[in-house]
Every structure is written in C-alpha cells, then in structure tokens.
Design brief:
- The chain has six helices and nine strands, in the order E-H-E-E-H-H-E-E-E-E-H-H-E-E-H.
- It is α+β, with helices and mostly antiparallel strands.
- It folds into two domains: 126 residues, Glycoprotein, Type 4 Pilin, CATH 3.30.700; 65 residues, 2-Layer Sandwich (Dna Ligase, domain 1), CATH 3.30.1490.150.
- A five-stranded antiparallel β-sheet has the order 1-3-2-4-9.
- The relative contact order is 0.20.
C-alpha cells in the first residue's frame, strides 16, 4: 500500500486510487528480489537507519530532517518499506511512482507502514523496539509483454482505467508462483478478473533493489539504546 499522505504516519501489495488527491499518488500496500546493487553498503545502512529513526521520531512527536544527504539519495524514486516483527509482516507501504527523493520516500513509507497500514493496528513503542525493516527501491514502471515477465526480477503493475494492482518482485518467489499465476494475482490485486491481463489490461513491469536489516542486527531497539547512551 502507498502512504496515504505526505505526513507519514502506513500498508503491502495493492493500490487504491480513490485515496489519491489531484496530482498526488498515495502509497500503497506491499505485496517484494533485488535488481542489482545500485546502492552502496553505506547508503543501504543510512536508509535503514532513517527508516527506524522515522518511526521512533513519530512515537516521540519530534521532527527529523528529510533533506537528502547525497545527490544520489536526492534522486526521485518509488520505494516500499516492509516491517517485520518476530519474522511476521507488521506493515508494508510504498510509492509506486517517484513522488519525492529516495531519502524522503523511505522516511515517509516507514512511518506509513508503522502507523497507517489498515491491515494492522498502529505500532506501539514496545513493538517498535523489535521491528526490522526491508526496503525496496523501485525503477520506473515500463510497459512489458506478458511473456517477457521474469519471475524474481520483475514486479508487476496491472491497470484498467482507475483500477490497478501492484505486486513486488519478491512476491511470486515467496509464494512459488509461475508467470501466469503472477499475472493473475496482479489482476486480483486490481480488483479485476484473473484473465484481465489477456483482455486489454495495461501490463507494466519494474525492478527493485531489495535490502533489509532482518539479519544485520539493526533494530529500533539498538538505535534507541545508542541514542540514549549519547545523551
């Protein structure tokens, strides 16, 4: 799901166009493999810390700077943030289209995943200390033929009129889907018939660089402890 507003407060793999204002594409829930290594280890760590800090600052009712620290992180890009607690999904929200800088998109979608994913109650401070983050930084969606879709490489965005459904690249891998099932499930996300991809629906694909801290030892608790030790 995409973040519902510019003040991040939440959602994974569907899009509700009725929540978008004029000229604004709201975040939508996630459904997410990695297209490559565009981002350095330092950039990845910085973005993951930002996601955690964005959640903590919301709980503390304090502001943080969203000014990109480097030209690369200032580039406009779509992004999704997935939150996990005890290995279970706890929230996932993202922007399909490039509505802001990578840096801002990560901060906003992290807060939105924590507090605005309507599939889950808002994250509490106790839960926040155990959260782990996975980020998916998206390329721009481009039209693609159905038989060119590659499982594990492409994410899908299928649309007809005002209805559209999105699934991240890692989703078919996690569920063991083949190409046809992937296309059908993207149609289902859009609220369309499963065979809509064969009957005039627009098929677009994108790639995503996916990275996270689930196995790196970074958690909101570790960031909070470090912050307290410097005070």
């Amino acid at each position: 799901m995409l973040p519902p507003r510019r003040n991040p407060s939440s959602a994974p793999d569907s899009f509700n166009p009725t929540t978008a204002g004029a000229g604004f594409t709201p975040p939508e829930p996630c459904g997410g493999q990695s297209a490559g290594n565009e981002f350095s280890a330092e950039e990845r760590a910085r973005l993951l810390r930002l996601a955690h800090e964005s959640i903590l600052s919301a709980l503390d009712h304090r502001k943080i700077s969203l000014d990109p620290p480097t030209p690369h992180l200032a580039e406009p890009r779509g992004a999704f943030t997935s939150l996990y607690r005890n290995a279970a999904l706890r929230g996932c929200v993202g922007y399909v289209l490039a509505t802001s800088s990578i840096y801002r998109a990560v901060a906003e979608t992290a807060r939105a995943a924590a507090f605005d994913d309507n599939r889950f109650p808002p994250v509490t401070r106790e839960e926040a200390q155990e959260l782990q983050v996975e980020l998916s930084i998206l390329s721009s969606p481009r039209p693609i033929l159905a038989d060119a879709v590659e499982i594990g490489h492409h994410g899908l965005l299928i649309s007809i009129g005002g209805s559209r459904g999105l699934l991240l690249p890692q989703v078919p891998v996690e569920h063991g889907w083949d190409r046809t099932t992937f296309l059908e499930q993207a149609c289902r996300k859009a609220g369309l018939a499963l065979d809509a991809w064969q009957k005039g629906a627009v098929i677009e694909a994108f790639t995503a660089e996916v990275f996270g801290d689930r196995f790196s030892g970074i958690t909101t608790r570790s960031l909070e402890s470090r912050s307290n030790s410097t005070q």
